[in-house]
Specification:
Strand content: 35-45%
Oligomer: single chain
Strand order of the largest sheet: 7-8-9-10-14-13-12-11
Structural class: mainly beta
Radius of gyration: 49 Å
Helix content: 10-25%
Length: 843
C-alpha cells in the first residue's frame, strides 16, 4: 500500500516533497508585536510627517506636521491649514497655554490659536523671521520661544523680545527639570538658566567627541543626555553610556518615559526601549511601530505613549495593550483556530490558512502534515493528551495524531463522518472525545465510536463528574453518562440554544453561548446568572473561556477579548473590554483557542493571529475620561453668533447664557468623550433638568434631541463612562432658557389683568348706570301711567257723577211736578236738592 502511495506521489514532485518533508521552512525568531495603533492622513491627520506632539488642558492631542496642525479626540482629527489662518503650514512646535491658547511655532514665526482665530505674535523689526523650533511656558502670562538660529525670545502679549541676558548664547534645546529648573543645551554643553546662565556640563566633561543634543529629566529627576554618540545617564559626576550610536547606526531624536518608568528613545531608525534593568530593545517595524525616524515621543494623561514618525504618521501604544503576533512575525497563518502545549512548554498553533506552527525556545517553526490533500493543512483543533500524544483535527481531512516525530491519520469507520473536527478533549479515564459537525465521538480501543442522541454540530465537552460529561452543541446543552445516549438538559427559566464552551468557576459551570453571553450555572440549584452585552460585553457570542484568578475570567468573544469580574454571591458583573489596533471591538476570537503560556501570559487564537493578554500589565490606576459639548443645534441648525468663549472649552462654538425664543424649542446636543485608552468603548449618561428627573441609562450615542420644549429654565448635563464604570472627571453642565411667548410674560399678564379689571369695572359701572337709568325711566313711566289712570279715573268718575247728578236733577224735577203746590215745605226741600245737584254738577 505504501509503495502504491509512493508511486502515486512520484507523479507529482511537489506532493512527494510534502509527504517526505514533515518539517518545512526554516526556524524563525519570534518577535512579539505590541499593539501599536497608527493614525495617518487616511484617518484625517493633516500630513504624514508629524514633528511634535502635545496634549492641551482639555485632554485633546495636538500634532504639528509639515502640512498643518491637527487636533485629535480619540475618534476624529480636526485639521487646520493656511486657509484657516496659519501663516505657514510647516509647523515644528506647539504649546497649550491655559490663559492664552495654543502657541504655534512654524516656519515664519509664532502664532496663537484661541479657538476662534489665529493671532500673530510680532518680533522686533530688526529680527528676521525664522522658524520657531521650541516653545516653553515661562509663567501664567508669558512663554519662551526658541528659533532655528538658537536665539531665545520671550512672548509678552502680542510682542516678542529676545531675552537680553541670554542673547550671546545660541541654544539647541530647552528643558525644565521636575522641580521647575530651566536648562538649555548649546554647542558648548548644558547650561543652568534658572538664575544667571551657568555652564553646568561641558561636552568635554563626558567625552571629547560628545555633542549634547537634548536632555531629559525622568520621574526621579535623573538627567538623561541625548548626544551624537548615543544616550548617556548622569550618575553623580559619572556618565553611563546606555545606547551607543555605533551599535544602533542611528541618531537619537527624542526621549520620553512611560508609566512603568521605562525610557523610550526615538531615533532615525525606529525607537529603543530601555528597561528598568537598563536592558535595551529595538522597537521597530517587527514590533508594530516603524523603522522610520521618530521625531517626538509623548506620554499622555492616560499613560498612552504617542510617537510622531517621519512619513509614518502618529502611533499610539496603550499601557495595557494586547500583544500579538501573526504571519509578519513568522506564524504560518493568521486564522488561529487551535492552541496546545506539552509539559516541556512547547506550543503548537493550528491555523486554517497556513497549517501548523510550533513555538519553542523563542523560535517559530512551520510544519505541514504529510498529506497531498489541501484540507489536511486546515488545522481546526489541537490537544495534548496525558500520554504526550498530540491530537490534530482538520477541516476536511479528519483526525491525526503525532507521537514522537511521526504523524499518523486516525482511520474512522466508513459509516461515520469524521472528516471535519471541531474540538478534542480527554476525560479522567483517558478517553479522547471528539466533537464534529455531525455529533459527538470518542476514541477507545483503537476505534472511533459515536454517541447516540446528538446528530447536530457539537462544539465542546466538559467533565462534570467522573462518569458524567456535558456537551455543548448547536441544539443546547446535553449530558452523557458512561458513554450512554446523550440527554438534553433543561435549565430553569432558560431557553439555551447554542453552547460553545465551558469553564469551571467556583460553584458555577460557566457556559459560553452563541447569543446569550455567559451563563453562570449553579447545577446544584439549577439556577443561572447571566452576563451579556447589557453588562458591557462587546458581544454575546462567546468562543473561549479562561479563568484568570478566583474572581476574573478572560473571555474570547466575536468582537474581541474581555475580562469579566464576578463580584459577590449575587452575581454582579464588572466587564473590561480590550481593543486592538483600529478595531473598536478587538479581534474576533476562535472556538476554544485559549492557552496559558509558561510566562503567565494568556494566548488567544483569533482571525488575525494570536493575541496575548499579559496580566503583568494590569494596574489599579484607572484614568477617568473627559467629556465635552461639541455643539447645540436648533431644528438641526447650529446656533451661531460671535461668542468669546463657550461654557466648556475653547475649541467648540457653544455660546454662554443662551436665551431662546419660544419658537426655537427643538434642541439637539452633540457631545463626545476624550478617552484615548478606549474611545469607542465609552458610554454616556445624560439628563435635562426641567424635563428629566434622573440620568438616562448609559448609551453609546453622542447626540440627543429634545423636541417641543415648553418655555422655562433648563440645564443639560452629561457624563462619560468607561466600560468598567469609571465616570468622567468632568461633566457637561449647559444652562439655557426658552423664553415664554409675549402673551405668557408677566408684563403682558399684568397689562391684560389690568385691562380685564378696567373692563370689568366699566361693565359693572355701565350695568349699574343702565339699571339706575332704567329705574328712573320705569318710575317716570309708572308715574305717567298713574297719571293716566288718575285722569281716566277722574274722567270716568266725572262722567258717572255728572250722569248721576243729572239724574238727581231730573228726578227732583219730576218729584217737584208731582207734588202739590201746597206742600211748600217739601217743595222747598226738593228745590234745594235740585239747586245743590246743579251746583255740584257745574262745579
Amino acid at each position: 500500500m505504501l509503495r502504491k502511495l509512493l508511486h502515486r506521489l512520484s507523479l507529482n514532485f511537489k506532493s512527494f516533497l510534502i509527504f517526505c518533508v514533515v518539517v518545512l521552512l526554516s526556524h524563525i525568531s519570534y518577535s512579539q508585536k505590541l499593539n501599536f495603533v497608527n493614525y495617518s492622513i487616511e484617518h484625517g491627520l493633516a500630513q504624514s510627517q508629524p514633528q511634535f506632539l502635545t496634549q492641551d488642558n482639555y485632554g485633546f492631542i495636538w500634532v504639528a506636521t509639515l502640512g498643518g496642525i491637527s487636533r485629535f479626540d480619540g475618534k476624529e482629527f480636526v485639521s487646520y491649514y493656511r486657509k484657516n489662518g496659519l501663516e505657514s503650514q510647516s509647523v515644528y512646535s506647539l504649546l497649550h497655554h491655559k490663559k492664552s491658547g495654543l502657541y504655534i511655532g512654524h516656519q515664519n514665526g509664532l502664532q496663537v490659536y484661541n479657538g476662534r482665530s489665529f493671532e500673530p505674535r510680532f518680533f522686533e523689526d530688526s529680527i528676521p523671521k525664522k522658524p520657531i523650533i521650541q516653545i516653553l511656558e515661562f509663567d501664567s502670562e508669558k512663554v519662551y520661544a526658541l528659533n532655528s538660529e538658537g536665539r531665545l525670545f520671550i512672548s509678552n502679549g502680542k510682542s516678542i523680545k529676545e531675552v537680553e541676558k541670554l542673547n550671546k548664547i545660541r541654544f539647541r534645546y530647552l528643558c525644565r527639570s521636575r522641580n521647575g529648573g530651566l536648562y538649555g543645551v548649546s554647542k558648548n554643553g548644558l547650561y543652568n538658566l534658572s538664575n544667571s546662565p551657568n555652564l553646568l556640563i561641558a561636552n568635554s566633561d563626558i567625552d571629547e567627541k560628545i555633542q549634547i543634543q537634548k536632555i531629559f529629566f525622568d520621574f526621579k529627576n535623573n538627567l538623561w543626555l541625548l548626544t551624537n554618540q548615543g544616550v548617556y545617564l548622569k550618575n553623580g559626576s559619572n556618565y553611563t553610556n546606555i545606547i551607543s550610536t555605533e551599535k544602533t547606526n542611528s541618531y537619537m531624536t527624542s526621549i520620553a518615559q512611560d508609566s512603568k518608568s521605562r525610557i523610550w528613545i526615538g531615533t532615525t531608525k525606529g525607537a529603543y526601549l530601555i528597561g528598568l534593568d537598563k536592558q535595551v530593545k529595538h522597537i521597530g517595524l517587527t514590533y508594530g511601530l516603524t523603522d522610520n525616524t521618530i521625531n517626538d515621543i509623548m506620554l499622555d494623561r492616560e499613560n498612552n505613549l504617542w510617537f510622531a514618525s517621519d512619513a509614518g504618521g502618529v502611533f499610539k501604544l496603550p499601557p495595557k495593550a494586547l500583544e500579538s503576533f501573526d504571519t509578519t512575525n513568522g506564524l504560518s497563518g493568521n486564522v488561529v483556530m487551535a492552541l496546545a502545549k506539552n509539559d516541556k512548554g512547547t506550543i503548537w498553533v493550528g491555523t486554517t490558512d497556513g497549517g501548523l506552527s510550533v513555538y519553542s525556545n523563542g523560535k517559530i517553526e512551520n510544519i505541514h502534515l504529510p498529506s497531498i490533500k489541501g484540507e489536511s493543512q486546515k488545522i481546526n483543533a489541537l490537544f495534548y493528551d496525558s500520554q504526550s500524544t498530540l491530537w490534530i483535527g482538520t477541516l476536511g481531512d479528519g483526525l491525526w495524531i503525532k507521537t514522537n516525530n511521526n504523524f499518523k491519520k486516525i482511520a474512522s469507520p466508513q459509516n461515520l463522518n469524521l472528516s471535519s473536527i471541531i474540538s478534542i478533549s480527554e476525560d479522567m479515564e483517558g478517553t479522547i472525545w471528539i466533537t464534529t459537525p455531525s455529533g459527538l465521538f470518542y476514541y477507545g480501543n483503537n476505534t472511533v465510536n459515536k454517541i447516540e442522541g446528538i446528530d447536530e454540530p457539537s462544539f465542546s465537552v466538559f467533565q462534570q463528574s467522573k462518569d458524567t460529561l456535558l456537551v455543548g452543541s448547536i441544539g443546547g446543552l446535553y449530558r452523557v453518562i458512561r458513554k450512554s445516549k446523550a440527554v438534553r438538559i433543561r435549565i430553569e427559566d432558560q431557553n439555551i440554544r447554542t453552547v460553545n464552551c465551558f469553564l469551571k468557576f467556583g460553584r458555577f459551570i460557566v457556559l459560553g453561548t452563541e447569543d446569550e453571553g455567559l451563563l453562570f450555572w449553579d447545577s446544584k440549584n439549577n439556577t443561572v446568572n447571566q452576563c451579556s452585552s447589557e453588562h458591557g460585553l462587546n458581544s454575546d457570542f462567546i468562543f473561549s473561556l479562561y479563568q484568570l484568578d478566583s474572581e476574573n475570567i478572560i473571555v474570547g468573544t466575536g468582537k474581541g477579548i474581555s475580562k469579566v469580574n464576578m463580584e459577590g454571591i449575587n452575581g454582579d458583573f464588572k466587564v473590561e473590554n480590550f481593543s486592538s489596533s483600529f478595531n473598536p471591538y478587538g479581534p474576533e476570537c476562535n472556538l476554544n483557542a485559549v492557552l496559558e503560556f509558561p510566562d503567565g501570559k494568556i494566548w488567544i487564537g483569533t482571525t488575525k493571529g494570536i493575541y496575548i493578554y499579559n496580566s503583568n500589565n494590569e494596574t489599579n490606576e484607572v484614568k477617568a475620561p473627559l467629556v465635552y459639548l461639541n455643539s447645540v443645534t436648533l431644528f438641526s441648525k447650529i446656533k451661531s453668533g460671535n461668542f468669546p468663549n463657550d461654557t466648556l472649552n475653547a475649541w467648540s462654538v457653544v455660546p454662554k447664557d443662551v436665551i431662546l425664543p419660544y419658537t426655537q424649542n427643538n434642541i439637539t446636543f452633540d457631545f463626545n468623550g476624550v478617552y484615548f485608552s478606549d474611545s469607542n468603548g465609552l458610554k454616556y449618561t445624560y439628563r435635562l433638568l426641567g424635563v428629566d428627573t434622573a440620568y438616562a441609562q448609559p448609551v453609546s450615542t453622542t447626540k440627543v434631541i429634545y423636541p417641543n420644549l415648553i418655555p422655562g429654565s433648563y440645564r443639560f448635563q452629561a457624563k462619560a463612562l468607561t466600560d468598567n464604570g469609571v465616570e468622567s472627571s468632568n461633566q457637561i453642565d449647559f444652562p439655557f432658557i426658552i423664553e415664554s411667548p409675549f402673551y405668557q410674560k408677566m408684563w403682558f399678564r399684568i397689562l391684560t389683568g389690568g385691562m380685564l379689571i378696567l373692563l370689568g369695572f366699566m361693565l359693572h359701572y355701565g350695568r349699574i348706570y343702565h339699571r339706575e337709568k332704567q329705574l328712573v325711566l320705569n318710575q317716570k313711566i309708572r308715574l305717567e301711567e298713574q297719571q293716566k289712570i288718575l285722569e281716566r279715573t277722574s274722567e270716568d268718575l266725572h262722567d258717572d257723577l255728572g250722569n248721576k247728578i243729572t239724574r238727581i236733577t231730573v228726578l227732583t224735577d219730576v218729584l217737584q211736578r208731582k207734588m202739590n203746590p201746597d206742600e211748600s215745605e217739601k217743595l222747598k226741600l226738593v228745590n234745594q236738592i235740585r239747586e245743590n245737584a246743579q251746583a255740584l254738577y257745574f262745579g
